[in-house]
Design brief:
alpha+beta, five-stranded mixed beta sheet, single chain, Jelly Rolls, globular
């Protein structure tokens, strides 16, 4: 029998070999694992964080070889388009793969920077970068922030390697990954002066001179980098002009940095402050480098975007994703804090290991808890995808398409930049609706159509030559930019002599959709029977939405017929349900001062404890036409089974108008 001491020797030897192998190859092992993880998640994700800008960047990169001017598209960021173009030839998954590679390379550079700044354990930097929540969700995207972070950290790494000239050349291309790079260049100018490397400062112009010459030869304008700058920085954007909170990004820090790294970041900041006043010259020098290369760019970038959003400049929408560009710097500051904390356990190997594992598990799990992963399509993208799928199988699929959302040509699989012959057109401005050729198709959406393309829904539906042929909406209501419910309309351009009533078409489509989603009709009155209990003199044949009669509201009728039933009679459902009330109204004229309401009310002893109402005299209501009104209210917790559900029209101002097809449905509550 072999003795235990004899067996322990090869086991210890094996463990030592494995530990040495891990130490030597930790960066490669972690990078390989993370590449597989993010690639799998990207493959399994139907959607992508950041919205339609992903598609626009993909299309610019994918079609750049066919239309070389796209390589110099200022909005697309020339450096990103040049690097992404080969990857984009493999479709959207190929373009997303580029960011995964760049993100992992950035995390690896962060580890090398930590090694040079003696921030330990260096391999933890890779995990901190990749699992910073916003950076984590940005990796499988087609957005420019990841390239920006890579260029930034590559330049810092070269700087710390004392390759100052090459560092200056690399950082000079930063503005062509994202235009905010121009804000950070003066910081590097200052840093080179402080470390007495002023001779490399002229190389900070390399990127600008390179693209100025290339673009100058093409555009015949050597100042195109500035004359074609895509964002207003000295005046308000005509659309994105709402001022935000100065501390908006700070308030969203849990979504950006995450609680674990936020705590460590604060600890790192305090540790850096302490070392700044250390008696050790080496620590003071190291803290100066961390301040100049990591902390100062991070806070400058944060302050710049905070001010833009606060002052409504540069078309800033306060999108959190822009901060992903400098999050690896924040992760390194957090690593500094982590180093300072684990030094407390330097004499206790077990506690140090236990604390390290605990923190790493918290950091890795945290982004999965606040972001859906794999990432789904947004309600807007799902709706556009469904609309395009319908169009592709419709009789109109060979027609020329005008669109307001870049997802449309993407899902159609057509080149949006092809000009001769053009198969699709990005359309803008409602005043040009009449210029769309007869027979063409317009795909309008409530986000880009109502904002960037400047086509309000009323202008679309009110254009007699545009006939609605398709309508799509999310499975659950979704409020888009501008505060509107998101929906998508497909219209066909008709001859000038053939006019369309789009409101009537839209209303009939909505009736069909509501009927499909209805669990049970609780009440329906089409007012065709004057002897149903109401005074027959209230019934009118002057106008009707359906049938021959409608109900007249006037000085005699403060309350319309409607629902009044005990809640114990409501059907029991397995899911949360809601009440939907719909009515058609004909108002001879709009009385803005009249507070005429469509009401859903839950009452006990004559007092309402849940009340939802909609004003009928809205500015968008068409006078002397039948208008459809619809409201919904969640079924509350009842106070007793004898409580009453009421659905009716309240007419306190004794306004004169007509109603028809009053309906109350029970539907599932959107989740």
């Amino acid at each position: 029998m072999v003795s235990a001491p004899f067996l322990s020797l090869p086991i210890c030897f094996y463990n030592r070999i494995m530990m040495d192998f891990f130490r030597r190859n930790v960066f490669a092992l972690l990078s390989g694992f993370l590449f597989l993880l993010f690639s799998a998640c990207s493959f399994l994700s139907d959607g992508y964080f950041g919205g339609a800008d992903n598609i626009t960047h993909f299309q610019l990169s994918h079609y750049a070889f066919y239309h070389p001017s796209l390589f110099l598209n200022a909005w697309g960021r020339p450096l990103y388009t040049i690097i992404a173009a080969p990857f984009a030839q493999f479709g959207l998954p190929g373009a997303k793969l580029l960011n995964i590679l760049l993100g992992i390379a950035t995390a690896t550079l962060a580890g090398e920077i930590a090694r040079k700044l003696e921030i330990k354990p260096t391999w933890v930097a890779i995990l901190f970068v990749c699992f910073t929540p916003l950076y984590f969700v940005m990796l499988p995207t087609v957005l420019t922030e990841i390239l920006f972070s890579f260029i930034l950290l590559l330049s810092i790494y070269l700087f710390l390697s004392e390759k100052y000239r090459l560092s200056a050349i690399v950082i000079s291309f930063l503005p062509f990954a994202r235009t905010e790079g121009f804000v950070l260049l003066p910081l590097f100018f200052l840093t080179y002066l402080i470390v007495k490397q002023g001779k490399v400062i002229p190389f900070l112009l390399t990127g600008t001179l390179f693209f100025s010459v290339i673009g100058g030869l093409y555009f015949r304008d050597f100042f195109w980098v500035f004359t074609q700058f895509p964002y207003p920085v000295t005046y308000h954007h005509p659309i994105y002009k709402e001022r935000g909170d100065l501390f908006h990004f700070i308030q969203d820090r849990n979504l950006i940095l995450g609680l674990p790294l936020e705590i460590l970041f604060i600890a790192g900041f305090l540790q850096l402050f302490r070392e700044w006043f250390s008696g050790s010259a080496m620590l003071r020098k190291q803290s100066l480098l961390i301040f100049l290369l990591l902390l100062l760019p991070f806070f400058t970038y944060l302050a710049f975007h905070s001010i833009l959003y606060w002052k409504a400049l540069g078309g800033s929408m306060g999108l959190d994703r822009v901060l992903a560009a400098v999050l690896p710097l924040g992760a390194l500051i957090a690593l500094k804090g982590f180093q300072g904390i684990i030094q407390v356990f330097k004499t206790n190997c077990f506690l140090r290991s236990f604390f390290t594992i605990l923190i790493l598990i918290w950091v890795v799990i945290f982004p999965f808890r606040i972001y859906p992963y794999p990432y789904p399509l947004s309600p807007e993208e799902e709706t556009i995808k469904a609309a395009v799928a319908w169009f592709k199988t419709s009789p109109y699929n060979k027609k020329t398409v005008y669109y307001t959302d870049n997802n449309v040509p993407y899902y159609l699989g057509i080149d949006p930049y092809q000009k001769s012959p053009a198969v699709c057109h990005l359309f803008g401005d409602s005043k040009y609706l009449d210029t769309i050729p007869e027979g063409s198709i317009l795909v309008w959406d409530a986000h880009f159509g109502a904002n960037e393309s400047k086509i309000p829904l009323d202008s679309l539906l009110g254009n007699d030559r545009q006939q609605v042929i398709g309508y799509f909406r999310p499975l659950q209501p979704w409020i888009t930019f501008g505060g509107h419910n998101y929906d998508c309309y497909i219209t066909k351009t008709k001859p000038a002599e053939k006019l369309a009533d789009n409101w009537a078409i839209r209303d009939s489509i909505l009736d069909v959709l509501d009927e499909k989603e209805c669990l049970k009709t609780l009440y329906l009155n089409n007012f065709e029977n004057p002897w149903d209990g109401s005074n027959p003199s209230f019934y009118s044949g002057d106008t009707a939405h359906s049938g021959k009669l409608s109900f007249r509201m006037d000085g005699r009728t403060e309350y319309s017929p409607g629902v009044c039933k005990e809640v114990k009679g409501l059907p029991v459902t397995s899911k949360p349900a809601m009440i939907q009330a719909t009515v058609y109204c004909y108002l001879p004229e709009i009385e803005i001062k009249s507070n005429t309401l469509l009401v859903i009310s839950f009452e006990q002893n004559g007092k309402s404890y849940s009340y939802t109402a909609m004003r009928l005299n809205d500015k968008k209501v068409r006078p002397a036409r039948w208008n459809r009104f619809s409201i919904s209210d969640t079924i509350p917790v009842f106070k007793s089974s004898r409580d009453l559900l009421k659905v009716y029209i309240w007419n306190p101002g004794k306004q004169r108008f007509f109603i028809d097809d009053l309906k109350a449905n029970l539907t599932y509550q959107p989740l």
